[in-house]
């Protein structure tokens, strides 16, 4: 009689039988051995029990992968739309559900980051003690250059609770709490705050900012020491040459804590004098400002700082004391100037002005378009410009022509290459050679043909993924960017309503057909931005179902706007809407993407639009509306929205329709907050530019009827794009701020014999 099977043997039989039909036992063994060899890099001589376990787990997982992907696809396809009943609805984006194949964890470079605690001043120096520690685990992503054999590293950090996290709680029986607190620690790197141009003073955000800064600075110092001495063992190294090897470019004020953190390392760990440390810090750091909107500027309450980063607060106070001493010497008795320039803002709640900290702690400060750099010198940072004019620079933003032309619009890239060769891809200034062909009928034809192909392709995409049919022969009039009052999607919306009313009034006129597409995300807590989306979808509902209008006007709101959608819609666009109130858009980069892809711009003299008009010729853009000086003058004289409303009949009609429920028949007062804002407290002066905008749009419609002239203007724009390559931007940062010259050495390919 056969011996009865043990439980383990039974499970083994069942599991092998369970796999029958999928693969046989010998395939299973082969795959197990393959994983042991290739995945775990072990053979049977050295494999541990854990290696066998992982090899088996991987073998089994292979069987799940097909079903796993299919299930996720199914969920994705069945997903309810983001936009629900015309409103933006957020959903979690679990983008790591499939893992991230590009990143490589580097646990060997894990670093501790300290929070909370208190400061002890001892004869041996300053000590930051009784801190809570969170570990920073680095993940490296390769960043390849364009056909130059260069692969740089982007190092990101993930928060990890240490093994002994809150062990003292554990000892007193707080086991559950200790485990829960581990999660709190790891929350630091779990979420990205979704605001655009808005400061939210949450402790978790300050923790995130310090976490990234502290991890990165430890990494910088470790790498600097090992590059100098081939070892991290050297405890005391002279860091005075740090600025010769390292540049820290503060991308907005979010990493501003790098300044007090580097001071802390130099003072408390490296035992440098204040003067020496400050010299190293200011020669290493530089600051890029990205906005002048006051609600976007970081001002952290001192109480938060005192609790979370007590040593950094002490250092900031000392930076401020010395800074104000200098200002007081330059301007004796000017107390108001000291108040304006202080790093500490007085008030009910004292706050640290992070932009002021960045300017004082940096050797260079820049804006991101010429007009913006001029504005910060004249207004936001005027006092600082007066004492240190040499610090202030401009670095106009740029975009990469690889992604934003060659990859997303291969048809256009090819048409250009046929005329001027391929070198323009690395040297975008060469696009000006296209001007030679501006009257060449074959180029005009080819450019128009590529645009039409892109429009057909995008129409098919919209039909498949958004279930809407559009007229590919209409003008594609596109405004895609974050939804924000200063970007004035509402001005676009008023134009839509005006066009609609005109078509209804004179249905037999030869109107230029338009498909107006607006896309972008609102910050989840920004009520007005969400209501703007609701208004656009409501207007679309009325306009798109009006039989009198037909396919001469369609309004589409593009939900879930992101880079992958930008890469599809921008090559298909005819008209690019860049209509912010002059003085509010620091640069914009969307404007440049459209220009490079053969769309014409309707825009204000704001941000990089100014330089685009300069490069392409102002006559080749549709520029309208108030200049910065006009806006400033109006701020002094007072902006009276009612005056425009009462004087301009088409504006009054559009507003009365919005206010009266024409676009929201089920809820007449749905848009009352927008109406009230536009009429009574509109910071961005939408009505003041309405007339000029509508007139300019009329010119756009007229030119669109003349495809040849339109396309010639497009060629002038493409030819004028050279300045807006990020290659130019980065080389200016390198030469003019970081003090570097490009290396002429070429890195050999891995299979190159010279090495
Ligand atoms: C380029 C880009 C932006 C920036 O657009 P602006 O018009 O400059 O505000 C925003 N979102 C996405 C997805 C982009 O590709």
TrEMBL record:
CC cofactor: pyridoxal 5'-phosphate
Subunit composition and interactions: Homodimer. Homotetramer; to form the enzymatically active phosphorylase A.
PANTHER family: GLYCOGEN PHOSPHORYLASE, GLYCOGEN PHOSPHORYLASE, MUSCLE FORM
Record flagged with keyword Nucleotidyltransferase: no
The enzyme's E.C. designation: 2.4.1.1
A single GO cellular-component term on record: cytoplasm
Recorded catalytic activity of this chain's protein: [(1->4)-alpha-D-glucosyl](n) + phosphate = [(1->4)-alpha-D-glucosyl](n-1) + alpha-D-glucose 1-phosphate
Any one GO molecular-function label of the UniProt entry: glycogen phosphorylase activity
Protein family (similarity comment): Belongs to the glycogen phosphorylase family.
NCBIfam families assigned to the protein according to its UniProt record, in alphabetical order: P_ylase
Keyword hit for Ribonucleoprotein: no
Pfam families (alphabetical): Phosphorylase (PF00343)
Role noted for this protein: Allosteric enzyme that catalyzes the rate-limiting step in glycogen catabolism, the phosphorolytic cleavage of glycogen to produce glucose-1-phosphate, and plays a central role in maintaining cellular and organismal glucose homeostasis.
Gene3D superfamilies in the record: Glycogen Phosphorylase B
Gene Ontology BP annotations: glycogen catabolic process
Keyword annotations from UniProtKB, A to Z: Acetylation, Allosteric enzyme, Carbohydrate metabolism, Glycogen metabolism, Glycosyltransferase, Phosphoprotein, Pyridoxal phosphate, Transferase
Entry protein name: Alpha-1,4 glucan phosphorylase
Annotated positions of the N6-(pyridoxal phosphate)lysine modification: 593
Native species: Oncorhynchus tshawytscha
């Amino acid at each position: 009689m056969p011996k009865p099977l043990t439980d383990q043997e039974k499970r083994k039989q069942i599991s092998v039988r369970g796999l029958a039909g999928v693969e046989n036992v010998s395939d299973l063994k082969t795959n197990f051995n393959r994983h042991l060899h290739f995945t775990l890099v072990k053979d049977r001589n050295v494999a541990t029990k854990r290696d066998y376990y992982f090899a088996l787990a991987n073998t089994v997982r292979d069987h799940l992968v097909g079903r796993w992907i299919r299930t996720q696809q199914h969920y994705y396809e069945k997903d309810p739309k983001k936009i629900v009943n015309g409103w933006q609805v957020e959903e979690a984006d679990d983008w790591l559900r499939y893992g991230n194949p590009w990143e490589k964890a580097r646990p060997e470079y894990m670093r501790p980051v300290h929070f909370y605690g208190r400061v002890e001043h001892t004869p041996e120096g300053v000590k930051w003690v009784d801190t809570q520690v969170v570990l920073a685990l680095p993940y490296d992503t390769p960043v390849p250059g364009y056909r130059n054999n260069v692969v740089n590293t982007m190092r990101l950090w993930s928060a990890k609770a240490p093994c002994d996290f809150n062990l003292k709680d554990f000892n007193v029986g707080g086991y559950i709490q200790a485990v829960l607190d581990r999660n709190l620690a790891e929350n630091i790197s779990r979420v990205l705050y979704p605001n655009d141009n808005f400061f939210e003073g949450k402790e978790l955000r300050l923790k995130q900012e310090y976490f990234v800064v502290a991890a990165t600075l430890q990494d910088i110092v470790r790498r600097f020491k090992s590059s100098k001495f081939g070892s991290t063992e050297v405890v005391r190294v002279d860091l005075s040459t740090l600025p010769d090897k390292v540049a820290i470019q503060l991308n907005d004020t979010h990493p501003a804590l790098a300044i007090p953190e580097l001071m802390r390392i130099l003072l408390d760990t490296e035992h440098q004098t204040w003067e020496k440390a400050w010299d190293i810090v200011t020669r290493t750091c530089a600051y890029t400002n990205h906005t002048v909107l006051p609600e976007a500027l970081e001002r952290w309450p001192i109480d938060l700082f005192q609790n979370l980063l007590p040593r950094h607060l002490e250092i900031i106070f000392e930076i401020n004391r010395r800074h104000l001493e200098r200002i007081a010497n330059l301007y004796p008795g000017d107390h108001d100037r000291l108040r304006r320039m202080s790093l500490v803002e007085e008030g009910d709640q004292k706050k640290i002005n992070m932009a002021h900290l960045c300017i004082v702690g940096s050797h260079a400060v820049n804006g991101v378009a010429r007009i913006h750099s001029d504005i910060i010198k004249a207004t936001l940072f005027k006092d600082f410009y007066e004492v240190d004019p040499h610090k202030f620079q401009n670095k106009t933003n740029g975009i990469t022509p690889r992604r934003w032309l060659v990859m997303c619009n291969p048809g256009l890239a090819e048409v250009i290459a046929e005329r001027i060769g391929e070198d323009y891809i690395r040297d975008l200034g060469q696009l000006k050679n296209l001007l030679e062909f501006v009257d060449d009928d074959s180029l005009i034809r080819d450019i128009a043909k590529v645009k039409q192909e892109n429009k057909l392709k995008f129409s098919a995409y919209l039909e498949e993924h958004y279930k809407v049919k559009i007229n590919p022969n209409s003008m594609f009039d596109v405004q895609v960017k974050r939804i924000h009052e200063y970007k004035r999607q509402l001005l676009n919306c008023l134009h839509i309503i005006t066009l609609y009313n005109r078509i209804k009034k004179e249905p037999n006129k030869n109107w230029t057909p338009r498909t107006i597409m607006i896309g972008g995300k609102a910050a989840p807590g920004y009520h007005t931005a969400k209501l703007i989306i609701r208004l656009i979808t409501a207007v679309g509902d009325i306009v798109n179902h009006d039989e009198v209008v037909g396919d001469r006007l369609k309004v589409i709101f593009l939900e879930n706007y992101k880079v992958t959608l930008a890469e599809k819609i921008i090559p298909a666009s005819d008209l690019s809407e860049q209509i912010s109130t002059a003085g509010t858009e620091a640069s914009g980069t969307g404007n440049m993407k459209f220009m490079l892809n053969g769309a014409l711009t309707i825009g204000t003299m704001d941000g990089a639009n100014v330089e685009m008009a300069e490069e392409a010729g102002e006559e080749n853009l549709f520029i309208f509306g108030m200049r910065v000086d006009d806006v400033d003058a109006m701020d002094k004289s007072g902006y009276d929205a009612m005056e425009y409303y009462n004087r301009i009949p088409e504006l009054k009609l559009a507003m009365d329709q919005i206010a009266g429920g024409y676009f929201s028949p089920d809820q007449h007062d749905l848009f009352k907050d927008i109406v009230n804002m536009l009429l009574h407290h509109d910071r961005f002066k939408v009505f003041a530019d309405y007339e000029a905008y509508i007139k300019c749009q009329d010119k756009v419609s007229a030119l669109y009827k003349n495809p040849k002239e339109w396309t010639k203007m497009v060629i002038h724009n493409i030819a004028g794009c050279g300045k807006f390559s990020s290659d130019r931007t980065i080389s200016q940062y390198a030469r003019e701020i970081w003090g570097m010259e490009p290396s002429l050495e070429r890195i050999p390919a891995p299979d190159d014999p010279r090495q």
